[in-house]
Write a structure and sequence with these properties.
- By secondary structure, the protein is an alpha+beta fold.
- The protein folds into 2 domains: 184 residues; 118 residues, no CATH class.
- It has a 4-stranded mixed sheet with strand order 1-4-7-2, with no helix packed on it. A 3-stranded antiparallel sheet has the order 3-6-5, with helices on one face.
- Strand 5 and strand 6 form a beta hairpin.
- Helix 3 packs parallel to helix 5.
Length: 344
């Protein structure tokens, strides 16, 4: 029995010895000796942060990133200390790719606290918003301070115009994840003037996605008077629609209007029916697809109500937009909407 145990142990050790080196190389990254002492590393990191500018940003980030296996704590200390000093001017250039949870927490806390006047500004909103998005715990103090508490009206935190604009910019640009949008709909009305001005600017943006998003925010916040048109959405069961003709203008954000000239309706002489069909990438869950430049007439819509939620909203000039939200589970490859002008 003793010999058997020894033999089994020897065999086990032999197998482990032959396999372990390959497994170790596959599972572990070999970290060489630190290239310099902590004191020298601190000097080098400071020099890199000092020299960062738009022209060499990527090189600075790459150089510092190569040292993180040894000097992560030193970098964190330098980023935090620099942000709290008067040497932060060029720091937003490199903060996003270099920050971790510790840095995000300290930077956002300082910006919302003792450094608010100097750092919580519209120019820093994108950087602060990015930190709050990637490390949600860093943004909790801000959200908690700004949210109305309970059912009893609470005082609105007093912010300067620049601070209010920064708050609105962060909330408007934040992806619709977690409770961000829900909280934003409670906070933004407290700074209505700042939100109104910001969203008006976004609506005039050449970036169509930003403009459509601003339209949606304005509707949800009721910043504009309700549209003069009415809408009727059918609730028929889902069915497959095969349009007989689909025109394509190469623009995935424009509707496809089908049919020839129709009857006059309050001055409208365009098509009386047709099909809207989405193009491009699948629409993610809770994502939206917008068909713009629709005449301001009442429409009967036939679409898959199991997977889509639709609404009409004011568009540019004398038009409206049709917005469909994917309320199903998972992405949807395509939207097909059959429309008919309602003459009533």
């Amino acid at each position: 029995m003793t010999v058997f145990r020894f033999g089994l142990l020897a065999a086990t050790l032999f197998v482990a010895a032959s396999v372990a080196p390959e497994a170790a190389r596959a599972q572990f990254k070999e970290i060489k000796a630190a290239p310099f002492s902590p004191a020298i590393a601190r000097q080098k990191i400071r020099a890199q942060l000092e020299m960062a500018d738009p022209g060499n940003r990527d090189q600075v980030v790459a150089t510092i990133s190569a040292w993180l296996d040894w000097y992560r704590d030193i970098l964190d200390e330098e980023l935090i200390a620099r942000w709290k000093s008067d040497r932060r001017t060029n720091l937003p250039l490199v903060m996003t790719p270099l920050a971790d949870a510790r840095v995000a927490r300290e930077v956002v806390q300082f910006s919302w606290g003792e450094g608010r006047e100097a750092t919580f500004t519209p120019s820093n909103a994108a950087m602060l918003g990015d930190l709050m998005e990637r490390y949600p715990d860093s943004g909790k103090p801000i959200v908690n301070d700004l949210l109305p508490q309970g059912t009893t009206p609470t005082p609105v935190p007093v912010l300067t115009p620049a601070e209010a604009e920064a708050v609105c910019r962060i909330l408007v640009d934040m992806p619709d994840i977690g409770n961000w949008r829900k909280n934003a709909l409670l906070i933004l009305p407290r700074y209505r003037a700042a939100a109104d001005q910001l969203l008006r600017q976004d609506m005039n943006s050449s970036d169509q996605e930003k403009a459509y998003r601003a339209q949606r925010w304005r509707m949800d916040l009721r910043l504009d008077p309700p549209p003069s048109i009415s809408q009727k959405l059918t609730t028929r069961p889902s069915r497959s629609i095969t349009p007989s003709q689909i025109t394509s203008n190469g623009d995935s954000q424009r509707p496809h209007l089908i049919g020839g000239p129709g009857n006059t309706l309050n001055g409208y002489t365009g098509p009386m029916s047709g099909t809207f069909e989405s193009t491009g990438d699948p629409i993610p869950q809770n994502g939206e697809y917008v068909f713009p430049n629709i005449p301001p007439v009442k429409l009967m819509l036939d679409f898959d109500t199991k997977h889509w939620e639709a609404r009409l909203a004011p568009g540019e000039g004398q038009t409206q937009v049709l917005v469909l939200r994917n309320k199903g589970k998972g992405p949807q490859k395509k939207i097909v909407v059959h429309w008919t002008v309602d003459p009533s």
